[in-house]
From TrEMBL:
Name the record gives this protein: uroporphyrinogen-III C-methyltransferase
UniProt-listed Enzyme Commission number(s): 2.1.1.107
UniProt similarity note: Belongs to the precorrin methyltransferase family.
Gene3D superfamilies: 3.40.50.10090, Cobalt-precorrin-4 Transmethylase, Domain 1, Methyltransferase, Cobalt-precorrin-4 Transmethylase, Domain 2
Keyword Transferase part of the UniProt annotation: yes
Recorded metabolic or biological pathway in which this protein acts: Porphyrin-containing compound metabolism; siroheme biosynthesis; precorrin-2 from uroporphyrinogen III: step 1/1
Keywords: Methyltransferase, Porphyrin biosynthesis, S-adenosyl-L-methionine, Transferase
Gene: cobA
Keyword Transmembrane helix included in the entry's annotation: no
Organism: Prosthecobacter fluviatilis
Length: 508
Protein backbone atom coordinates (compact mmCIF):
# COMPACT_ATOMS: atom_id res chain seq x y z
CA UNK A 1 0.00 0.00 0.00
CA UNK A 2 1.16 3.56 -0.65
CA UNK A 3 2.83 5.38 2.22
CA UNK A 4 0.21 7.10 4.31
CA UNK A 5 0.47 10.58 5.61
CA UNK A 6 -1.53 11.22 8.71
CA UNK A 7 -3.60 14.35 8.89
CA UNK A 8 -6.12 15.29 11.55
CA UNK A 9 -8.83 15.23 8.88
CA UNK A 10 -11.63 12.71 9.02
CA UNK A 11 -14.57 11.93 6.79
CA UNK A 12 -17.77 10.55 8.28
CA UNK A 13 -19.87 8.67 5.76
CA UNK A 14 -23.23 9.19 7.36
CA UNK A 15 -26.63 7.72 6.61
CA UNK A 16 -29.07 10.61 6.75
CA UNK A 17 -32.14 8.40 6.92
CA UNK A 18 -35.04 8.35 4.49
CA UNK A 19 -36.35 11.87 5.01
CA UNK A 20 -38.37 12.24 8.20
CA UNK A 21 -36.18 14.69 10.15
CA UNK A 22 -36.53 12.47 13.22
CA UNK A 23 -35.04 9.46 11.48
CA UNK A 24 -31.44 10.58 11.80
CA UNK A 25 -29.26 8.70 14.29
CA UNK A 26 -27.74 10.43 17.31
CA UNK A 27 -24.30 9.67 15.95
CA UNK A 28 -25.28 11.13 12.60
CA UNK A 29 -26.35 14.32 14.32
CA UNK A 30 -23.07 14.49 16.24
CA UNK A 31 -21.16 14.17 12.96
CA UNK A 32 -23.16 17.03 11.46
CA UNK A 33 -22.43 19.16 14.52
CA UNK A 34 -18.72 18.40 14.31
CA UNK A 35 -18.34 19.02 10.57
CA UNK A 36 -16.28 21.78 8.98
CA UNK A 37 -17.79 20.81 5.64
CA UNK A 38 -21.01 18.97 4.86
CA UNK A 39 -21.33 17.22 1.53
CA UNK A 40 -24.89 16.11 0.93
CA UNK A 41 -27.08 14.33 -1.59
CA UNK A 42 -30.41 14.78 -3.28
CA UNK A 43 -32.10 12.26 -1.00
CA UNK A 44 -30.67 13.69 2.20
CA UNK A 45 -33.22 15.91 3.87
CA UNK A 46 -31.60 19.38 3.95
CA UNK A 47 -33.41 19.97 7.27
CA UNK A 48 -30.58 18.04 8.93
CA UNK A 49 -28.16 20.82 8.00
CA UNK A 50 -29.62 22.94 10.77
CA UNK A 51 -27.43 21.03 13.22
CA UNK A 52 -24.27 22.31 11.54
CA UNK A 53 -22.08 24.66 13.53
CA UNK A 54 -21.79 28.30 12.57
CA UNK A 55 -19.44 28.79 9.69
CA UNK A 56 -19.59 25.19 8.46
CA UNK A 57 -19.66 24.98 4.68
CA UNK A 58 -22.23 22.84 2.93
CA UNK A 59 -21.83 21.49 -0.55
CA UNK A 60 -24.71 19.99 -2.48
CA UNK A 61 -23.61 17.21 -4.78
CA UNK A 62 -27.16 16.02 -5.47
CA UNK A 63 -27.62 13.17 -7.81
CA UNK A 64 -31.03 12.83 -9.28
CA UNK A 65 -31.40 10.35 -12.11
CA UNK A 66 -30.02 12.06 -15.19
CA UNK A 67 -29.07 15.22 -13.34
CA UNK A 68 -25.68 14.82 -11.73
CA UNK A 69 -24.40 17.95 -10.12
CA UNK A 70 -21.09 16.16 -9.62
CA UNK A 71 -20.08 12.78 -10.98
CA UNK A 72 -19.18 10.03 -8.50
CA UNK A 73 -15.49 10.47 -9.39
CA UNK A 74 -15.74 14.19 -8.70
CA UNK A 75 -17.45 13.52 -5.37
CA UNK A 76 -14.70 11.07 -4.42
CA UNK A 77 -12.07 13.62 -5.31
CA UNK A 78 -13.85 16.34 -3.40
CA UNK A 79 -14.16 14.45 -0.12
CA UNK A 80 -10.59 13.16 -0.38
CA UNK A 81 -9.30 16.68 -1.00
CA UNK A 82 -11.25 18.22 1.88
CA UNK A 83 -10.28 15.48 4.31
CA UNK A 84 -6.62 15.61 3.25
CA UNK A 85 -6.66 19.34 3.99
CA UNK A 86 -7.34 18.34 7.58
CA UNK A 87 -11.02 19.10 7.68
CA UNK A 88 -13.77 17.21 9.44
CA UNK A 89 -15.99 16.25 6.54
CA UNK A 90 -19.46 14.85 6.99
CA UNK A 91 -20.73 13.16 3.88
CA UNK A 92 -24.50 12.76 4.17
CA UNK A 93 -26.23 10.17 2.06
CA UNK A 94 -29.92 9.33 1.90
CA UNK A 95 -30.94 6.26 3.88
CA UNK A 96 -27.98 4.05 4.74
CA UNK A 97 -24.61 4.89 3.15
CA UNK A 98 -23.73 1.35 2.14
CA UNK A 99 -27.06 0.16 0.81
CA UNK A 100 -27.00 1.18 -2.83
CA UNK A 101 -25.27 4.33 -1.68
CA UNK A 102 -21.78 3.89 -3.08
CA UNK A 103 -20.50 4.49 0.44
CA UNK A 104 -18.04 1.67 0.02
CA UNK A 105 -16.48 3.29 -3.02
CA UNK A 106 -16.05 6.56 -1.19
CA UNK A 107 -14.55 4.73 1.80
CA UNK A 108 -12.10 2.94 -0.50
CA UNK A 109 -10.96 6.24 -2.02
CA UNK A 110 -10.42 7.72 1.43
CA UNK A 111 -8.49 4.65 2.52
CA UNK A 112 -6.40 4.83 -0.65
CA UNK A 113 -5.60 8.47 0.08
CA UNK A 114 -4.55 7.51 3.59
CA UNK A 115 -7.11 9.60 5.44
CA UNK A 116 -9.39 8.53 8.24
CA UNK A 117 -13.03 7.74 7.75
CA UNK A 118 -15.91 6.24 9.70
CA UNK A 119 -19.13 4.74 8.43
CA UNK A 120 -22.24 5.81 10.33
CA UNK A 121 -25.15 3.59 9.32
CA UNK A 122 -28.52 5.15 8.69
CA UNK A 123 -32.13 4.09 8.54
CA UNK A 124 -32.65 2.77 5.05
CA UNK A 125 -35.64 3.62 2.91
CA UNK A 126 -35.77 -0.07 1.99
CA UNK A 127 -37.18 -0.91 5.43
CA UNK A 128 -38.42 2.42 6.78
CA UNK A 129 -40.29 3.29 3.58
CA UNK A 130 -42.56 0.25 3.70
CA UNK A 131 -42.92 0.64 7.50
CA UNK A 132 -44.25 4.17 7.02
CA UNK A 133 -46.80 2.76 4.59
CA UNK A 134 -47.91 0.19 7.16
CA UNK A 135 -45.94 -2.65 5.54
CA UNK A 136 -43.53 -4.67 7.67
CA UNK A 137 -40.81 -6.24 5.51
CA UNK A 138 -40.96 -9.47 7.51
CA UNK A 139 -43.92 -10.98 9.32
CA UNK A 140 -44.41 -14.30 11.06
CA UNK A 141 -47.44 -15.10 8.91
CA UNK A 142 -46.15 -13.87 5.58
CA UNK A 143 -42.39 -13.72 5.17
CA UNK A 144 -39.31 -14.91 7.03
CA UNK A 145 -36.90 -13.75 4.39
CA UNK A 146 -36.11 -10.44 2.75
CA UNK A 147 -34.33 -9.77 -0.53
CA UNK A 148 -33.30 -6.25 -1.44
CA UNK A 149 -32.23 -5.56 -5.00
CA UNK A 150 -31.63 -2.64 -7.29
CA UNK A 151 -34.12 -1.88 -10.02
CA UNK A 152 -31.59 0.31 -11.74
CA UNK A 153 -30.26 -2.35 -14.09
CA UNK A 154 -32.10 -3.19 -17.24
CA UNK A 155 -33.20 -6.79 -16.71
CA UNK A 156 -33.32 -7.45 -20.45
CA UNK A 157 -29.65 -6.57 -20.94
CA UNK A 158 -27.43 -9.64 -21.13
CA UNK A 159 -24.87 -8.12 -18.77
CA UNK A 160 -27.32 -7.61 -15.92
CA UNK A 161 -25.97 -8.93 -12.65
CA UNK A 162 -29.42 -9.85 -11.41
CA UNK A 163 -30.86 -13.30 -11.87
CA UNK A 164 -34.59 -12.71 -12.24
CA UNK A 165 -35.33 -16.42 -12.38
CA UNK A 166 -33.95 -16.76 -8.86
CA UNK A 167 -35.53 -13.51 -7.65
CA UNK A 168 -38.95 -14.55 -8.89
CA UNK A 169 -38.66 -17.91 -7.16
CA UNK A 170 -37.20 -16.60 -3.90
CA UNK A 171 -39.40 -16.93 -0.84
CA UNK A 172 -40.42 -13.99 1.27
CA UNK A 173 -40.48 -10.27 0.65
CA UNK A 174 -38.64 -8.60 -2.19
CA UNK A 175 -37.82 -4.90 -1.99
CA UNK A 176 -36.25 -2.93 -4.77
CA UNK A 177 -34.93 0.60 -4.96
CA UNK A 178 -34.42 2.82 -8.01
CA UNK A 179 -36.93 0.85 -10.00
CA UNK A 180 -39.98 3.01 -10.76
CA UNK A 181 -38.78 3.73 -14.29
CA UNK A 182 -38.26 0.03 -14.93
CA UNK A 183 -41.35 -1.27 -13.18
CA UNK A 184 -42.74 -2.67 -16.41
CA UNK A 185 -39.62 -4.72 -17.26
CA UNK A 186 -39.15 -5.85 -13.67
CA UNK A 187 -42.71 -7.12 -13.18
CA UNK A 188 -42.60 -8.74 -16.61
CA UNK A 189 -39.43 -10.63 -15.64
CA UNK A 190 -41.01 -11.78 -12.39
CA UNK A 191 -44.10 -13.07 -14.19
CA UNK A 192 -42.02 -14.69 -16.92
CA UNK A 193 -40.13 -16.65 -14.29
CA UNK A 194 -43.19 -17.99 -12.55
CA UNK A 195 -44.16 -15.45 -9.90
CA UNK A 196 -47.91 -15.38 -9.27
CA UNK A 197 -49.62 -12.49 -11.06
CA UNK A 198 -51.78 -11.78 -7.97
CA UNK A 199 -48.70 -11.23 -5.75
CA UNK A 200 -49.29 -7.93 -3.94
CA UNK A 201 -47.01 -4.99 -4.72
CA UNK A 202 -46.72 -1.55 -3.14
CA UNK A 203 -44.70 1.49 -4.14
CA UNK A 204 -43.93 4.14 -1.56
CA UNK A 205 -42.83 7.46 -2.97
CA UNK A 206 -41.00 10.09 -0.91
CA UNK A 207 -41.40 7.69 1.97
CA UNK A 208 -41.39 9.13 5.50
CA UNK A 209 -41.72 12.65 4.09
CA UNK A 210 -44.92 14.58 4.77
CA UNK A 211 -45.83 14.20 1.11
CA UNK A 212 -45.40 10.41 1.05
CA UNK A 213 -47.56 8.62 -1.51
CA UNK A 214 -48.34 4.94 -1.73
CA UNK A 215 -49.63 2.98 -4.67
CA UNK A 216 -50.71 -0.64 -4.33
CA UNK A 217 -51.54 -3.33 -6.87
CA UNK A 218 -50.30 -6.72 -8.00
CA UNK A 219 -47.46 -7.94 -10.17
CA UNK A 220 -49.98 -8.08 -13.00
CA UNK A 221 -51.32 -4.54 -12.81
CA UNK A 222 -48.87 -2.32 -10.90
CA UNK A 223 -46.96 -1.19 -14.00
CA UNK A 224 -50.15 0.06 -15.64
CA UNK A 225 -51.17 1.78 -12.41
CA UNK A 226 -47.80 3.53 -12.17
CA UNK A 227 -48.24 4.80 -15.70
CA UNK A 228 -51.83 5.92 -15.15
CA UNK A 229 -51.00 7.73 -11.92
CA UNK A 230 -47.81 9.30 -13.30
CA UNK A 231 -46.06 7.82 -10.26
CA UNK A 232 -42.41 8.85 -10.26
CA UNK A 233 -39.13 8.26 -8.43
CA UNK A 234 -37.96 8.19 -5.71
CA UNK A 235 -39.91 5.19 -4.56
CA UNK A 236 -39.35 1.96 -2.71
CA UNK A 237 -41.14 -1.07 -4.10
CA UNK A 238 -42.26 -4.02 -2.00
CA UNK A 239 -43.36 -7.33 -3.49
CA UNK A 240 -45.01 -9.97 -1.34
CA UNK A 241 -47.81 -10.90 1.00
CA UNK A 242 -46.61 -8.44 3.66
CA UNK A 243 -48.34 -5.77 1.57
CA UNK A 244 -51.68 -7.18 2.77
CA UNK A 245 -50.87 -5.81 6.24
CA UNK A 246 -51.22 -2.25 5.00
CA UNK A 247 -54.96 -1.81 5.54
CA UNK A 248 -54.56 -2.66 9.25
CA UNK A 249 -51.20 -1.00 9.86
CA UNK A 250 -51.29 2.14 7.76
CA UNK A 251 -50.61 4.66 10.52
CA UNK A 252 -48.60 7.45 8.91
CA UNK A 253 -50.96 8.36 6.11
CA UNK A 254 -53.97 8.17 8.40
CA UNK A 255 -52.90 10.91 10.76
CA UNK A 256 -55.51 13.69 10.81
CA UNK A 257 -53.61 16.34 8.83
CA UNK A 258 -51.72 13.99 6.48
CA UNK A 259 -51.57 15.38 2.96
CA UNK A 260 -52.48 18.89 4.06
CA UNK A 261 -50.06 21.64 3.25
CA UNK A 262 -50.29 24.33 5.88
CA UNK A 263 -48.47 27.66 5.95
CA UNK A 264 -47.23 28.92 9.30
CA UNK A 265 -46.46 32.62 9.60
CA UNK A 266 -45.21 34.16 12.92
CA UNK A 267 -41.57 34.70 13.83
CA UNK A 268 -38.90 32.16 13.01
CA UNK A 269 -38.41 31.44 16.71
CA UNK A 270 -42.10 31.02 17.48
CA UNK A 271 -43.12 29.22 14.33
CA UNK A 272 -41.50 26.03 15.47
CA UNK A 273 -43.99 25.42 18.29
CA UNK A 274 -46.97 25.66 15.96
CA UNK A 275 -45.15 23.86 13.14
CA UNK A 276 -44.20 20.98 15.41
CA UNK A 277 -47.76 20.46 16.58
CA UNK A 278 -49.14 20.58 13.04
CA UNK A 279 -46.40 18.25 11.76
CA UNK A 280 -47.11 15.79 14.55
CA UNK A 281 -50.64 15.53 13.17
CA UNK A 282 -49.22 14.81 9.74
CA UNK A 283 -49.32 18.22 8.06
CA UNK A 284 -46.74 19.34 5.53
CA UNK A 285 -45.75 22.68 7.02
CA UNK A 286 -44.34 25.60 5.05
CA UNK A 287 -42.84 28.16 7.39
CA UNK A 288 -42.94 31.73 6.16
CA UNK A 289 -41.90 33.93 9.03
CA UNK A 290 -43.41 37.37 8.38
CA UNK A 291 -42.40 39.17 11.54
CA UNK A 292 -39.45 39.48 13.81
CA UNK A 293 -39.31 40.67 17.37
CA UNK A 294 -36.93 43.55 17.97
CA UNK A 295 -36.02 45.47 21.11
CA UNK A 296 -37.63 48.88 21.56
CA UNK A 297 -35.40 51.83 20.83
CA UNK A 298 -36.04 53.43 24.20
CA UNK A 299 -34.33 50.86 26.40
CA UNK A 300 -33.85 53.45 29.14
CA UNK A 301 -37.57 53.98 29.85
CA UNK A 302 -38.24 50.27 29.61
CA UNK A 303 -35.37 49.55 32.01
CA UNK A 304 -36.65 52.08 34.55
CA UNK A 305 -40.10 50.51 34.61
CA UNK A 306 -38.66 47.01 34.95
CA UNK A 307 -36.42 48.23 37.76
CA UNK A 308 -39.47 49.48 39.64
CA UNK A 309 -41.53 46.36 39.03
CA UNK A 310 -41.65 45.46 42.73
CA UNK A 311 -43.51 48.68 43.49
CA UNK A 312 -46.60 47.60 41.57
CA UNK A 313 -49.60 45.57 42.70
CA UNK A 314 -49.80 43.75 39.37
CA UNK A 315 -47.67 43.06 36.34
CA UNK A 316 -49.67 42.19 33.25
CA UNK A 317 -48.13 40.16 30.44
CA UNK A 318 -50.05 40.00 27.18
CA UNK A 319 -47.64 37.91 25.10
CA UNK A 320 -44.82 35.40 25.49
CA UNK A 321 -42.51 37.90 23.78
CA UNK A 322 -43.33 40.44 26.47
CA UNK A 323 -42.32 37.96 29.16
CA UNK A 324 -39.04 37.27 27.37
CA UNK A 325 -38.23 40.96 26.91
CA UNK A 326 -39.17 41.76 30.52
CA UNK A 327 -36.96 39.10 32.05
CA UNK A 328 -34.06 39.80 29.71
CA UNK A 329 -34.09 43.33 31.10
CA UNK A 330 -34.79 42.14 34.64
CA UNK A 331 -31.77 39.84 34.55
CA UNK A 332 -29.56 42.72 33.46
CA UNK A 333 -30.74 44.79 36.39
CA UNK A 334 -30.97 42.21 39.13
CA UNK A 335 -29.29 38.96 39.97
CA UNK A 336 -31.95 37.72 42.37
CA UNK A 337 -35.43 36.73 41.29
CA UNK A 338 -36.75 37.93 44.64
CA UNK A 339 -36.18 41.49 43.44
CA UNK A 340 -39.53 41.18 41.74
CA UNK A 341 -41.06 41.49 45.22
CA UNK A 342 -44.58 40.52 46.08
CA UNK A 343 -46.14 41.82 42.89
CA UNK A 344 -48.91 39.66 41.48
CA UNK A 345 -48.84 38.48 37.89
CA UNK A 346 -51.62 38.35 35.31
CA UNK A 347 -51.32 36.72 31.90
CA UNK A 348 -53.48 36.89 28.81
CA UNK A 349 -53.33 33.19 28.04
CA UNK A 350 -51.63 29.85 28.60
CA UNK A 351 -48.69 30.43 26.21
CA UNK A 352 -47.75 33.60 28.08
CA UNK A 353 -48.35 31.93 31.45
CA UNK A 354 -46.02 29.10 30.52
CA UNK A 355 -43.17 31.57 30.03
CA UNK A 356 -43.81 33.04 33.48
CA UNK A 357 -44.01 29.62 35.08
CA UNK A 358 -40.72 28.68 33.45
CA UNK A 359 -39.20 31.31 35.76
CA UNK A 360 -40.76 29.53 38.73
CA UNK A 361 -43.18 32.36 39.28
CA UNK A 362 -46.87 31.67 39.78
CA UNK A 363 -49.56 33.26 37.64
CA UNK A 364 -52.29 34.81 39.77
CA UNK A 365 -54.85 35.73 37.16
CA UNK A 366 -55.84 34.61 33.67
CA UNK A 367 -58.97 35.10 31.57
CA UNK A 368 -61.58 32.37 31.41
CA UNK A 369 -60.94 29.60 28.95
CA UNK A 370 -61.91 30.51 25.37
CA UNK A 371 -61.40 34.18 26.17
CA UNK A 372 -57.65 34.69 25.92
CA UNK A 373 -57.85 38.23 24.59
CA UNK A 374 -57.41 41.65 26.19
CA UNK A 375 -61.15 41.93 26.83
CA UNK A 376 -61.07 38.58 28.61
CA UNK A 377 -58.28 39.74 30.88
CA UNK A 378 -60.12 42.99 31.67
CA UNK A 379 -63.18 40.94 32.60
CA UNK A 380 -61.06 38.69 34.79
CA UNK A 381 -59.83 41.76 36.71
CA UNK A 382 -63.39 43.06 37.00
CA UNK A 383 -64.50 39.77 38.54
CA UNK A 384 -61.43 39.54 40.72
CA UNK A 385 -61.20 42.82 42.61
CA UNK A 386 -61.93 46.50 42.91
CA UNK A 387 -59.29 48.21 40.74
CA UNK A 388 -59.54 51.65 42.34
CA UNK A 389 -55.98 52.99 42.87
CA UNK A 390 -54.44 49.61 42.08
CA UNK A 391 -50.98 50.04 40.55
CA UNK A 392 -50.51 48.07 37.35
CA UNK A 393 -47.47 47.62 35.12
CA UNK A 394 -48.54 46.48 31.67
CA UNK A 395 -45.69 44.89 29.70
CA UNK A 396 -46.72 45.41 26.11
CA UNK A 397 -45.67 45.42 22.50
CA UNK A 398 -45.03 48.82 20.96
CA UNK A 399 -47.90 48.33 18.57
CA UNK A 400 -50.93 46.80 20.18
CA UNK A 401 -54.50 47.63 21.03
CA UNK A 402 -55.02 49.96 23.97
CA UNK A 403 -57.82 47.89 25.53
CA UNK A 404 -55.93 46.94 28.69
CA UNK A 405 -54.76 50.46 29.51
CA UNK A 406 -58.06 52.14 28.66
CA UNK A 407 -60.33 49.71 30.41
CA UNK A 408 -58.28 49.27 33.58
CA UNK A 409 -57.76 53.04 33.88
CA UNK A 410 -61.50 53.39 33.44
CA UNK A 411 -61.91 51.12 36.44
CA UNK A 412 -59.70 53.42 38.53
CA UNK A 413 -56.38 51.60 38.19
CA UNK A 414 -53.10 53.46 37.75
CA UNK A 415 -51.62 51.86 34.66
CA UNK A 416 -48.00 52.28 33.58
CA UNK A 417 -47.15 50.91 30.17
CA UNK A 418 -43.77 49.31 29.58
CA UNK A 419 -43.08 49.06 25.87
CA UNK A 420 -41.02 45.90 25.87
CA UNK A 421 -40.53 45.00 22.22
CA UNK A 422 -41.66 45.81 18.74
CA UNK A 423 -42.76 43.71 15.83
CA UNK A 424 -41.00 44.40 12.57
CA UNK A 425 -41.14 42.83 9.16
CA UNK A 426 -38.94 39.76 8.74
CA UNK A 427 -36.37 40.72 6.18
CA UNK A 428 -34.58 37.40 6.29
CA UNK A 429 -34.57 35.43 3.10
CA UNK A 430 -37.97 33.80 2.75
CA UNK A 431 -37.54 33.27 -0.96
CA UNK A 432 -37.38 29.51 -0.91
CA UNK A 433 -40.52 29.10 1.17
CA UNK A 434 -42.34 31.73 -0.89
CA UNK A 435 -41.34 30.01 -4.12
CA UNK A 436 -42.67 26.73 -2.73
CA UNK A 437 -45.96 28.37 -1.84
CA UNK A 438 -46.22 29.86 -5.30
CA UNK A 439 -45.33 26.63 -7.05
CA UNK A 440 -47.17 24.05 -4.97
CA UNK A 441 -49.93 26.13 -3.40
CA UNK A 442 -51.23 25.19 0.04
CA UNK A 443 -54.43 24.06 1.70
CA UNK A 444 -54.39 26.46 4.60
CA UNK A 445 -52.55 29.44 6.05
CA UNK A 446 -52.50 30.22 9.76
CA UNK A 447 -52.29 33.60 11.43
CA UNK A 448 -51.57 33.96 15.12
CA UNK A 449 -51.86 37.73 15.39
CA UNK A 450 -53.09 40.70 13.42
CA UNK A 451 -49.46 41.68 12.83
CA UNK A 452 -48.50 38.34 11.26
CA UNK A 453 -51.36 38.88 8.84
CA UNK A 454 -50.54 42.49 8.06
CA UNK A 455 -46.91 41.71 7.49
CA UNK A 456 -47.88 38.81 5.26
CA UNK A 457 -49.85 41.23 3.09
CA UNK A 458 -46.77 43.42 2.91
CA UNK A 459 -44.87 40.56 1.28
CA UNK A 460 -47.24 41.05 -1.68
CA UNK A 461 -47.52 37.33 -2.28
CA UNK A 462 -50.91 36.45 -3.67
CA UNK A 463 -52.69 33.79 -1.66
CA UNK A 464 -53.08 30.59 -3.69
CA UNK A 465 -56.51 29.87 -5.11
CA UNK A 466 -58.84 28.16 -2.65
CA UNK A 467 -56.47 28.38 0.31
CA UNK A 468 -58.28 28.37 3.67
CA UNK A 469 -57.49 30.94 6.33
CA UNK A 470 -57.18 30.00 9.99
CA UNK A 471 -57.01 32.57 12.75
CA UNK A 472 -56.10 32.29 16.41
CA UNK A 473 -58.98 34.47 17.62
CA UNK A 474 -61.42 37.33 17.09
CA UNK A 475 -58.86 40.14 17.03
CA UNK A 476 -56.77 38.46 14.34
CA UNK A 477 -59.94 37.55 12.44
CA UNK A 478 -61.12 41.15 12.52
CA UNK A 479 -57.83 42.28 10.95
CA UNK A 480 -58.16 39.63 8.24
CA UNK A 481 -61.77 40.51 7.48
CA UNK A 482 -60.95 44.21 7.41
CA UNK A 483 -58.85 43.49 4.33
CA UNK A 484 -61.72 41.67 2.65
CA UNK A 485 -60.60 38.10 3.32
CA UNK A 486 -62.79 35.32 4.67
CA UNK A 487 -61.80 33.52 7.83
CA UNK A 488 -62.53 29.81 7.47
CA UNK A 489 -61.35 28.64 10.88
CA UNK A 490 -61.20 30.54 14.13
CA UNK A 491 -59.77 28.95 17.26
CA UNK A 492 -62.29 28.72 20.07
CA UNK A 493 -59.56 28.77 22.62
CA UNK A 494 -57.23 31.59 21.60
CA UNK A 495 -53.94 29.79 22.01
CA UNK A 496 -51.60 27.71 19.87
CA UNK A 497 -53.11 24.38 21.03
CA UNK A 498 -56.55 25.96 20.47
CA UNK A 499 -55.59 26.88 16.91
CA UNK A 500 -54.16 23.44 16.25
CA UNK A 501 -57.30 21.69 17.42
CA UNK A 502 -59.52 24.04 15.36
CA UNK A 503 -57.43 23.24 12.27
CA UNK A 504 -57.65 19.53 12.99
CA UNK A 505 -61.41 19.73 13.46
CA UNK A 506 -61.80 21.64 10.20
CA UNK A 507 -60.17 18.90 8.14
CA UNK A 508 -61.91 16.04 9.89
N1 LIG B 1 -28.92 4.44 0.48
C1 LIG B 1 -30.30 4.68 0.23
C2 LIG B 1 -30.71 4.21 -1.14
C3 LIG B 1 -30.04 5.01 -2.24
S1 LIG B 1 -30.52 4.53 -3.85
C4 LIG B 1 -31.14 4.02 1.32
O1 LIG B 1 -30.62 3.26 2.13
O2 LIG B 1 -32.33 4.32 1.42
C5 LIG B 1 -31.77 5.69 -4.20
C6 LIG B 1 -33.11 5.03 -4.16
O3 LIG B 1 -33.50 4.84 -2.81
C7 LIG B 1 -34.25 5.81 -4.74
O4 LIG B 1 -34.29 5.67 -6.14
C8 LIG B 1 -35.42 5.16 -4.10
O5 LIG B 1 -35.71 3.91 -4.69
C9 LIG B 1 -34.89 4.89 -2.73
N2 LIG B 1 -35.23 5.93 -1.75
C10 LIG B 1 -34.40 6.63 -0.98
N3 LIG B 1 -35.07 7.47 -0.16
C11 LIG B 1 -36.37 7.27 -0.43
C12 LIG B 1 -37.58 7.80 0.09
N4 LIG B 1 -37.59 8.72 1.05
N5 LIG B 1 -38.74 7.34 -0.42
C13 LIG B 1 -38.75 6.40 -1.37
N6 LIG B 1 -37.66 5.88 -1.91
C14 LIG B 1 -36.48 6.29 -1.44
Amino acid sequence: MATKKTTPGICYLVGAGPGDPGLLTLKGKECIEAADVLVYDYLCNPAHLRYAKDGAASIYVGKKAGDHTLSQEEINKLIVKLTTEGKTVTRLKGGDPVLFGRGAEEAAELREAGVKFEIVPGITSAIAGPAYAGIPVTHRSHASQLTIFTGHEDPTKPDTSLDYAKLAQADGTKVFLMGVERIEEITREFLKHGAKPETPVALVRWATHTHQQTLTGTLADIAAKVKAAGFKAPAVAVIGDVVTERPQLNWFEERPLFGKKIVVTRTRAQASVLSKQLSALGADVIEIPTIRIAPVEDQMSFGELVQDCHTYDWIIFTSPNGVDAFFTMFDKLYNDTRSIGGVRIACIGPGTAEKVKARHLAVDLMPDKKNYVAEGLVKAFKDHQDMENVKVLWVRAQETREVIANELSGMGAIVDEAEAYRTIAETEDNLEALARLKEEGADMITFTSASTFEHFLNLKVPLPEGIKIASIGPVTSAAIKAHGFKVDVEAQENSIPGLVSAVEKYWK
